[in-house]
Each structure stands twice: as C-alpha cells, then as structure tokens.
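Is 2'-monophosphoadenosine-5'-diphosphate placement plausible here? Inputs below.
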Amino acid sequence: MSADSLRLAVFGQPIAHSLSPLIHALFGAQTGLDVDYRAHETGPGTLRAALAHFHQEGGTGCNVTLPLKAEAAQLAQTTSERVQLAGAANTLLWRDRGWHADNTDGLGLVADLQRLGLNPAGQRIALIGAGGAAAGVLGALLATGPAELTIYNRTLASAEALRERHGAPAGLRAAALQHLPTADGIDLLINATSQGHRGDLPPLPEQLTTDSAVYDLNYGPAAAGLLSWCQQHAVPAHDGLGMLVAQAAESFYRWTGVRPEFQPVLERLQAQRGD
Ligand code: ATR
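Reply from A.M.:
I modeled the complex. Tokens:
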C-alpha cells in the first residue's frame, strides 16, 4: 500500500468476518493494481457520515452490505437502473461531486450460474423469497431471458409487488410459498430467503430431481441446511460463494476499469474452506 493506492472499502454491520477485503486484495494482486480495501463497521443511519469521512480520506469507491443497501441507494446522488429496480445498492463510485450507486449482485449471480453451466436463459426458474436479496437479483435473471420465472414468497403481496416493479412481463409470476411443494417443472430453484441464517430452510418440492439444480444466495453455514437436503435428495446444489466473488469482480471493474477473473479467486477461497 502507498499514498497512490486506490482507496476502497466495505461498509456494513457486522463486517468483521467479511471476505471482501481478501477478495479485493487478490484481485489487486491478479491485476497488478495497488488497492487498499478495508472493512468499516457501520450501523444503520450512519452511512452518510461514514462515506463523507471515507471520501475526505481519499476514498473513491466502496461496497455497501447488510443492513445498509437500501440506505446507500437513497443517499446516492445518481443511481443505475439496476439500483432503481432493486431498491438497493451494493457498489458506490465517486463521480464528480457525489456518489453514484450501482448493484452488481444480480450480475454476480448470473456470472456464477454461467460458470456452473446453469445459464438461466430458457429455463423454468423458481425464485424463493421477495425481500432485499431477491430484489437484488431479479432484474439480472430476467435479462437473461428465462422461459418462466415464479417468485414464491411466504407473504404473497411482497412477491406480487416485486413482479409489478418489474413491469409484470409475461412469464414472470408471483405465488404463495405454500404452493412451492407441489410445483413441478422447475429447472433451477434459487433460494433468496433469510431462513438459512436461523438454521431453517424453505419447504422444497419432492419433485426436484437430478435434472433440476438449486442455488442458494447464502453461503457457508447459512446455506448448509439447504445443501444437505439437496445432497439427501441427489439434487445438484451450490451455495453463493461464487456469486460473492463474481459480484465483487463487477464492483472492482466499475472502480478500476479492469475486470478481474473471478474463478481463480473463488478457487482459492474454496480451497481455504476445504471444498
Ligand atoms: P434479505 O435482505 O436477506 O432478503 P429480507 O428483506 O428481510 O432479507 O427478506 C427475507 C426473505 O426471507 C423474505 O422473502 C421473507 O419472507 P416474507 O416476505 O414473507 O417475510 C423470507 N423469510 C424469512 N423468514 C422466513 C420463514 N420463516 N419462512 C418463509 N420465508 C421466510
């Protein structure tokens, strides 16, 4: 690190165990760019002050994670269409006299699905959940052109609202979560609920077979229950570690103009956790 380092950061709470500083250090090493990326513990309502201080110290780009993604979208001076659709931002970039907000979560998910050979184009997709995580990825999923995509949620009204926000195109449906166990014809099931954080998992259709695939936006312990269910039912399943690294690569590209390769960094993290 030097006075010329590109000053980057992530803001969130809790942030101590964030993998982002390591991921961006590895991107820096891979691309030969001198980046100084640090994690800042930042509670709700305090992001504006934290960003002002960060910018004063020379900060030009940052990630924003839970629980600050909606706050970041609101305080940014300009926002991408992705942020407007998601109502949330995970990437901020200093432009002229203010922060520009973008959201790379959905792009990260799609990049990881493609790495796994699970291109959503033409597929029948079940997206479970209609909260912030689901909203963050829906636009990018729809842009790939799935044959149909149904948002299943415990609170049907939230699924319907998310559908409306995306212009309710043909092929985008909203349904109550209790209908999921009888749903058949799912090629790709994506878990975007927060249940895994409490050691819980959504009710899964017994019809899911080895021809289907499951992707959990969570990773690590929060995805363990769902991955274990899938293993017992011989359904191919993946956690969201690849999405985490791929969304980081998209952020890095926005700050530096250089797009790092995310797969070698993902492999390093997978080896580190013993995959
Ligand atoms: P996040 O930003 O992680 O998406 P969130 O906005 O609080 O967090 O959304 C959590 C999602 O998990 C929602 O879709 C929520 O369903 P509701 O809209 O009905 O609240 C879903 N969820 C959380 N706990 C759940 C549970 N026990 N059963 C079913 N769905 C649950």
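Short version: The pocket of 2'-monophosphoadenosine-5'-diphosphate is lined by residues 129-134, 153-155, 158, 177, 193-195, 200 (CB under 6 Å).
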